[in-house]
Amino acid sequence: MSSMKVYAMIFITFFLSGLMQISLAQATTASSRMVDGKAIDQGIAYVLMLVALLVTYLIH
Predict the structure, then answer these.
(1) How many folded domains does the chain comprise?
(2) pTM score, whole prediction
C-alpha cells in the first residue's frame, strides 16, 4: 500500500506542475488574446500522459 502512496504523490506532483505551467503561461499572455499553439500542444500532451498513466495503472 505504501508504493501506491508513492505513485499517487508522483502523479499529483506532475499534474499540479502542469497546471501551474498553464496558469503561468496564461498570466504572461493575458494582454494578447491570441491563441498560443504551443500551449494547446502542451495541454494535449498532458491529457495524453494522464490517459497513458491511467491505462497503465488499470492494466497493471
Answers:
(1) 1
(2) 0.43
